[in-house]
Amino acid sequence: MSLPGNAMPGNSLPRIVVLGAGLGGTIAAYEIRDATKGRAEVTVVSDSEDYWFVPSNPWVAVRWREPEAIRVPLAPVMAKKGIGFTSGGALRVHPQDQRIDLRDGTSITYDWLVIATGPELAFDEIPGFGPQGYTVSVCRTDHAAHAADAFDAFCADPKPIVVGAAQGASCFGPAYEFALILDTELRRRKIRDRVPMTFVTSEPYIGHLGLDGVGDTKGLLESEMRERHIKWITNARVASIEPGMMHVEEVGEDGAVKKAHDLPFGYSMLLPAFRGVEAVHGIEGLTNPRGFILADRHQRNPTFKNIYSLGVCVAIPPIGPTPVPVGVPKTGFMIESMVTAVAHNIASELMGANRTRCQAGTRSVWPISATAAWPLSPSPRSRRAMSTGPRMANGSIWPRSALRSTFSTKSAPAPASRFMKSSRSTCWGSAN
Fold first, then answer.
1. Alpha-carbon distance 189 to 90, whole Å?
2. Buried/exposed 128-162: b ≥16 CB within 10 Å, e otherwise
3. Alpha-carbon distance 241 to 239, whole Å?
4. Of 133, 67, 153, nearest to 269 (Cα)?
5. How many C-beta neighbours within 10 Å does residue 242 have?
6. How many Å separate Cα 97 from the centre of its chain?
7. Which distant-in-sequence residues (6+ apart) come within 8 Å of 293 by Cβ?
8. How far apart (Å, rounded) are the C-alpha atoms in residues 291 and 125?
9. Residues 345-368: pLDDT tens digits?
């Protein structure tokens, strides 16, 4: 076995490995370290040396923010917090052996594993889709930087824009956000009147968000999009994309194609469907057929009891049937609740059950006996809080007045380093 990064050799403490270093992985490492109180070695395995503040990617795509402003080098941050770190990336997880093979040829063993990898982006499921095809993306910061170059070129020769979310997508908030950002930036550049905009989504109605609506999101978003002269197509299934042309099928309640649309575009961004990453995909008992991690209500895998998961990589069934597949978003608020549950449950297993434990989303504690060690799960109070009023993609309340102030302001978001000073922050559903 090789101990990568800044993990300390010779340490006989139990090892907790956090696989993934996005929003969920980084704050999980912080909270697990705090919850275990020095009784375990915590190591983060990432596929990147840097943390990128993904919620700012739509800003990067219109040059409201530069990529470097939303980057945080992870090694010094983790070292300062006493957390091991490697950017070697995971090649394959071997649950039976409690081992992870890394891409650099080394491996690392674990006593507990927390999977927080985020998703793989399934652009390949639609011909011509994504940065390797004919549309841009804001799912990653390098994608967003490329999208900014494409947008500059587009503004020199304006044509129609198509924005939205493809079939199977589960992260809808950023699609709406980007549509409104584009509308605002086009107005600033004084070319909005030359750019017809269409919002294409697999949702059965505008504002569904994968949650069958939250408050009056339907009325709120429909009204805002009408006011901004953005047309929309719901129950949309993208058949294929060619240079400058998107072929979309509008599906009826019976599942049959109701109408076919050929949408010309000069610039397009659709959020893709997600699937599990290659390092875990296809492991029996660990993942579902799509590659998402199976977890009980305590975020623990039912087959491999020392594996927990959180964030976008977790398998969550859809809210209900829809004519076109629609996934459930994992918001920043939800991910934080998962993180707290995972940290306290692992600490409970590590240090024994005869103690009190705080409940996720509340300040209450209750005694845990050796014969009734109920693991922590996101509390009903937390779940209620997640569904109180319309919310932005980052989990914050989304009043109508905030729409205009958010997408017409000239100010830029705070640098990413601000968000790394604390383990409590919110983010996109597509963030891990």
1. 44
2. bbbbebbbbbbbbbebbbbbbebbeebbeebebbb
3. 7
4. 133
5. 12
6. 29
7. 115, 276, 280, 286, 287, 301, 307, 309, 313, 314, 315
8. 15
9. 999 999 885 443 333 443 333 222
Token match 């700012």: residue?
Answer: 56
At 162, is the secondary structure helix, strand, or coil? strand
Judged on CB neighbours under 10 Å (0-12, 13-18, 19+), 190 is exposed
CA distances (Å), 166 to each of 195, 306, 432, in order? 21, 35, 20
What does DSSP assign to residue 300?
B
CB 204 within 8 A of CB 252: no
Please classify residue 406 by burial: count the beta carbons closer than 10 Å to its beta carbon, then call 0-12 exposed, 13-18 middle and 19+ buried: middle
Global pTM reads 0.82
- Quickly count: other Cβ atoms within 10 Å of residue 383's Cβ: 15
- Other CB atoms within a 10 A radius of the CB of residue 7 amount to 21
Amino acid at 172: F
User: Whole-angstrom Cα distance, residue 5 to residue 43?
Assistant: 9
Residue with tokens 């991690």: 293
Instruction: Strands of 5-111 (E only): list them.
Output: 15-19, 41-45, 50-52, 71-73, 84-86, 90-94, 99-102, 107-109
For 304, the 3-state DSSP assignment is coil
Mean of the pLDDT values across residues 182-192?
98
Q: Give the Cα separation of 181 and 411 in Å (integer).
A: 13
The model's confidence at residue 10, banded by pLDDT at 50, 70 and 90, is low
